[in-house]
Amino acid sequence: MDHSIGLRPPVSETVYVQTLNLICGALLLAAVLILWRRELAAIVRLLVVQGVLLAALAALLGAREGSSELYAVAAGVLALKAVVLPAVLRRVLRDTGEVRETEPLVNVAASLLAGALLTLLAYAVSRPLVALAPSPATQALPVALAVMFLGFFVLVTRRRALSQVVGFLLMDNGITATAFLATSGVPLIVELGVSLDLLLVVLVLQVLTARMRLTFGRTDLDELRELRD
Amino acid sequence: MSGVLHDTAVAAGTAALAAPLLAPLAAAAAAGLVGWRRAVAWSAVAAAAVILTGGVLAGMATIDGSVLRIGGMLRADALSAVMLLVIGAVAVIATWAGVSYIEQELATGHTDARGARRYAVLVPLFLAAMVLAVLASNLGVLWAAVEATTIVTAFLVGHRGTRASLEATWKYVIICSVGIALAYLGTVLVYYASQQAGVDGHGSLDWAVLVSHGDQLDPGVMRVAVALLVLGFGTKAGLVPMHSWLPDAHSQAPAPVSALMSGVLLSVAVYALLRYRVIAVAALDPRFVRTLLLAVALASLALAASMLLAQRDYKRLLAYSSIEHMGLVVLGVAVGTPLAVAALLLHILGHGLGKAVLFCGSGQILAAEGSTQIADVRGLLTRRPLLAGTFALGLAALLGLPPFSLFVSELALARAAATAGLGWAVAVALALLLVVFVAVAAHAAGMLVGGAAGQSTPDPPPGGAAAVAPLVTGLVVLAVIGMLAWPLEQLLSAAAAIAGTS
Questions:
Q1: Which end of chain A is more exposed for a tag (fewer CB within 10 A), N or C?
Q2: Residue B454 — very low, low, confident or very high, per pLDDT cuts 50/70/90?
Q3: Within a domain: residue A37?
Q4: Are B98 and B41 in contact (CB under 8 A)?
Q5: B227 touches chain A (CB under 8 A)
Q6: Rounded to whole angstroms, what are the CA distances from A217 to A62, A103, A105, A214, B165?
Q7: A168 to B189: CB separation less than 8 angstroms, yes or no
Q8: Which residues 6+ apart lie within 8 Å of A193 measured at CB?
Q9: Is A39 exposed, middle or buried (0-12, 13-18, 19+ CB in 10 A)?
Q10: Shortest CB distance from A201 goes to which of B158, B173, B224?
Q11: A215 with B163: Cβ contact below 8 A
């Protein structure tokens, strides 16, 4: 960014903007890597990285606004997205003993190309959102939406049950990042409800994956083809 | 004198907000502690009756346009009261029918004590989540409650434990969670717009506050938000393009749960759309909102009509009929005039009761005939006249025949849409309804009077009169509200004044 000479912004502002951009860039990078990798364990590690980044984002906004509530939210995000949810996913991984995504519906090169197109789409969709209140935080909104779109792409193109859960979590991370960037987080009561729901959904999906393995012997979603008209 | 009366009504109404939330929680706790017992099963029916009573009391208190509040979180106006009535009425029938349903499953070994306990815990929790959704004053809490319904119903859909029910559960949880995640993004964007407009200083998600500041919200952001909300809550309402989970989940769930999911859960999602529409038309060009909703409504109707024609499974037939009726209801939301809102609320009530009767009836047909294939069920009217009679009358109600209330509400919906200058949409909808009528009537005729494939009746009708009693009650109520407008009409117009905009 080109700052005009003589109007030097305070250092804390520069540090804030650079840290913000760094975090958002890393979030998108982690999402793209999830699209690229096939080892499920590596994908879960990338989700941990994203959880840490989201907590850092909340803490950064908390420091800027001097809000203790945001620090508490940051701690909650760290616990949920970097510790608890990955632990649930690892448990599924251990129980199923499936380490790699099976024959992908879309190959890596095409996936990455689609990822690039989805990022462009995210920029187009977020134009009115940025235009309403341009600031360093809202200017990073396209990145958050891109993470959400990438999550949706993972969800519809992968065949393993666990990969679908990963896609869903990636979407949720993108939406969480959007909430932080646009509004510095939703009201606390809503945040609590949303986090509780997320945790319960993932637990439900874990139980379903276990049942699927018992019933079908594996967790390939191609097995789900009994119900049709 | 009338002031005193009104104060009493408000006090009773405030109690009416807390009790419908607490009663199902108590029933769930009881079931968790002692497992499936007859008394526990009836406590769920009692909890449903408390919700219904709460709806009546809240309706009496809010019929003049007043609003009940508890703290900052719970709020009821006439619209919430109508929804409480719908939840309560359908829940009474579904939980009542659920008593004999689970007893019979236990007797035939289709479920065990563990499954029955899980059922007895989850069904009241499901009711509590829906009550919270219609009583929440905060749109974020409304969202969280709708998502909570997905979680509690997941293991109800998978109750039978078969391959097919597992498949249905997985699709249900994944598709609905993704859809509702989009609705959450929409909620966040509404919050963003309200923050930037300086609503309440730091922004707000309180519905009443947002409505009073609707015209200050940024149209660019609200357009994206409304599209996401329609897509997201539309998923839970079973609307095109995110409907594909519905026929699977509704056909695999136990019959009383299908009745609740189809009869009220879909309507609770439409209720969210109804609330958001009031904000959206204040912030945006109303034509954008109307076009979006019309497209979704007509596409859902068209899909349902085409899928009903070639349907071979009667539970899926009922599921697609739910998509059809939600299409009609959302058509009413798109029109959005007070007349349309009153009509669609009456339609929601009628559809809820009708679907409760039919799904519970279909559960008994399945138990008696052992198949959900339409072709396997023949000549039911001569072999099981009582059950087949209620099923036939339920279908007649659903197809909009008098004297049932869906006849009145469909007529009112058509009139409201035509008055609002949407005559073409009425024409399209009526043509599609005609297709639905022919399709359902042909399938039903086969099941009820069709030539006997295997005349041998394997076993005597299970349950008998006691099992049919809740269904008959539902039909009688449907006919009564179809013929007598009196107790409901004022409340419906009070609710229409809240959600309708001319």
A1: N
A2: low
A3: yes
A4: yes
A5: no
A6: 47, 17, 21, 6, 16
A7: no
A8: B140, B141, B143, B144, B145, B148
A9: exposed
A10: B173
A11: yes
Q: For the CA atoms of B18, B22, B23, B29, what is the dihedral angle to 10 degrees?
A: 180
Domain that holds residue A96: 11-215
> Is the pLDDT assigned to residue A178 strictly greater than 60?
yes
Mutation for A interface: B174, B190, B216, most A CBs within 10 A: B174
Rounded Cα–Cα distance for residues B142 and B274 (Å): 12
Higher pLDDT residue, B6 or B319?
Answer: B319
Domain boundaries, chain B: 2-499
Q: What is the pLDDT of residue A8?
A: 47
Size of chain A in residues: 229
Best of B149, B167, B199, B250 to disrupt the A interface (most A CBs within 10 Å) is B167
Average pLDDT over residues A52-73: 94
Distance between start and end Cα atoms, chain A = 56
A129–B223 CB contact, under 8 Å: no
Cα of A6 to nearest chain B Cα, Å: 30
- Give the C-alpha separation, B313 to B276, whole Å: 36
Is A174 part of a structural domain of the chain? yes
Number of domain units in chain A: 1
- Our CA-based measurement puts residue B164 at a distance from the nearest CA of chain A, in whole angstroms, of 6
Separation between Cα atoms, residue B190 and residue B139, nearest integer Å: 10
Over the stretch B357-411, which tens digit does the pLDDT of each residue have? 999 999 999 988 888 999 999 889 988 899 999 999 999 999 999 889 999 999 9
The alpha carbon of residue A169 is apart from the nearest alpha carbon of chain B, in Å, by 10
Task: Report pLDDT digits (tens) over B143-183.
Answer: 999 999 999 999 999 998 889 999 999 999 999 999 999 99
Alpha carbons B41 and B236: distance in angstroms, whole number: 27
Cα-atom radius of gyration of chain A, to the nearest Å? 19
Of the partner residues B181, B191, B220, the one whose CB lies closest to the CB of residue A175? B181
- Owner of token pair 């600031």: A135
Q: Does A4 reside within a domain? A: no
Nearest to A128 among B174, B224, B251 (CB): B224
CA neighbours closer than 13 Å in the CB half-sphere of residue B272? 36
Report the residue count for chain B: 502
Sign (positive or negative) of CA dihedral A137, A140, A146, A147 = negative
Pick the range with the lowest mean pLDDT from A9-13, A122-126, A184-188, B39-43.
A9-13
Domain-located, residue A224: no
Residues of A in Cβ contact (< 8 Å) with B191: 179, 182-183, 186-187
Q: Is the pLDDT of residue B196 over 90?
A: yes
Query: Nearest Cα to A17, choosing from A176, A158, A140?
Result: A140
Peptide bond into A10 cis (omega under 30): no
Q: What is the pLDDT of residues B216-270, one digit of tens each?
A: 999 999 999 999 999 999 999 999 999 999 999 999 999 999 999 999 999 999 9
Report pTM: 0.94
Say which of B138, B154, B163 has its CB closest to residue A190: B138
CB B386 within 8 A of CB B378: no
Q: Residue A8 and residue A187: Cα distance in Å, rounded?
A: 34
